[in-house]
Amino acid sequence: MSHDVLSLWHEQAAAAGDDLTARAHLDGDTEADVVVVGAGYTGLWTAYYVLAARPDARVVVAEAEIAGFGASGRNGGWCSALFPQGVAALSRRYGRAAALDMRRAMIGSVDQIGRVVAAEGIECGWTKGGTIQLARSPAAVVRAHAEVDEDAAFDRVDDIEFLDADAAWSRLAASRVMGATYTPHCARIQPALLVRGLARAVERRGGVVVEGTRATRVRSGRVDTDRGTIRADVVVRATEAWTSTLAGHRRDVVPVYSLMVATDVLPADLWATIGLARGETFGEHRHLIVYGQRSHDDRLVFGGRGAPYHFGSGIHPDFDRDPGVFVMLERSLRDLLPQLGDVRVTHGWGGPLAIPRDWHAGVGLDRASGMAWAGGYVGDGVGTAHLAGRTLADLIVGADTELTQLPWVGHTSPPWEPEPLRWLGVNAGLRLAEWADAEERVTRRPAVLGSALAGLTGH
């Protein structure tokens, strides 16, 4: 397939001179010190930091398609400090000190990615403008204040501030704005340019990236692929949504699709009426997740959940584009920003993200077997994958660091239910979010259904 049709981001990467042609595939059996399955952010950051610590290490990254084929190349372009479990949930599970350590590590990852981007000369539109989350209903205002209060109870670790209606509107001139929250800990990126640049940085450090090489089985000491076997002391599974396609991992995560649309390039006078002048990313305090950014080339890029989960953890190119979801996203965007008028929506794309049963990302290394893993980011993967890669590298080289003591190290999630329970439960959760938003539009109060949704996701 022509990879430039995967997303706007891939199309832009091709236009910038990256022809997206697959690197050479594995040519028969080989050996390495570390083999990483998956050339997305997790796998490439792991390789990058292992090679930074041990320049003589033999590191092979095996990718079924091309680097950045999956969520790493198609996502919403938020390099944020978001983690699937909030600080209060982490505190209940691990204690206050560990929860704060986790939050500070995530916040630090945002700036560390920026430093690597600058050091490696990766042109990916990096702009740290923070995130504004709009409240456009009385119920959303209640949730916004609750988020600020929670942050205050945890030493303002996330630096969240409440913006009144005027202050919020001055940042993003959206309709029916009643307030917002703002945190500085997020950067806008062009995700395909970041992941493709990172793959080249790994190669400059001596790593080997083989593409068009599909892993069929991942086990202690070896990765079997359709091009040969890679034997290694450490095997890293960094496959995120595609984990469900591996033998023995069918129920580890569910692949849920998130879809996006993008407008044509907007003129400066229109941007003056919209805002986002500092490169902020944006979303809403609602139950069904939406997210957006002002892209590096001045488009509005907007995405959200709502696409169905496909029976049997199905992943297929046909699922990347759902006309009904694209219509819903465009309608939501035009309702949010009516000043768009007749501006064209020129692109639509999507892809799967991974949701573990307990909505809790994990990272770890079993030293006895040499098996390492990371994933379960629930759509918050850009910053989390970087922290995972740094942590895996420390674990692999045997370094005892602050990162290896974080509470998510060693975490494994329980398996999802077998079908058809999995299909029924996941799609019911998606519909529950929609119904909770509908309930709030009618009652103008926090949804009773929202409590049920919070219980389902562990927040």
Q: How many individual helices?
A: 13
CA-atom Rg in angstroms: 21 Å
Strand content: 15-25%
How is the main sheet built? 8 strands, mixed
Poorly predicted residue ranges = none
- The tally of strands reads 18
Sum up the overall morphology in one term: globular
Mean pLDDT across all amino acids: 95
Helix content: 25-40%
Class from secondary-structure proportions: alpha/beta
Distance between the termini: 40 Å
Provide a short characterization of the protein structure.
The protein has 459 residues and is of the alpha/beta class.
Task: Describe it.
Helices cover 36% and strands 22% of the residues. Strands 1, 2, 8, 9, 10, 11, 17 and 18 form an eight-stranded mixed beta sheet that branches. Strands 5-6-4-13-14-15-12-16 form an eight-stranded mixed beta sheet, with helices on both faces. α5 packs across α11 and α12 packs antiparallel against α13. The two termini are 40 Å apart. It is globular. β9 and β10 form a beta hairpin. The model has no long low-confidence stretch (mean pLDDT 95). 50% of the residues are buried. By secondary structure, the protein is of the alpha/beta class.
List keywords for this structure.
eight-stranded mixed β-sheet; 13 helices; alpha/beta; 36% helix; single chain
Task: Give the SSE layout.
Blueprint: H1 8-15, E1 30-37, H2 41-53, E2 59-62, H3 71-74, E3 78-80, H4 87-94, H5 96-120, E4 131-135, H6 138-153, E5 161-164, H7 165-171, E6 179-183, E7 186-188, H8 191-204, E8 208-210, E9 215-219, E10 222-225, E11 228-237, E12 253-263, H9 268-274, E13 281-284, E14 290-294, E15 300-304, H10 323-336, E16 345-356, E17 362-366, E18 371-375, H11 381-397, H12 421-443, H13 448-457
Helix pairs in contact: 1-8, 2-8, 2-11, 4-5, 5-11, 12-13
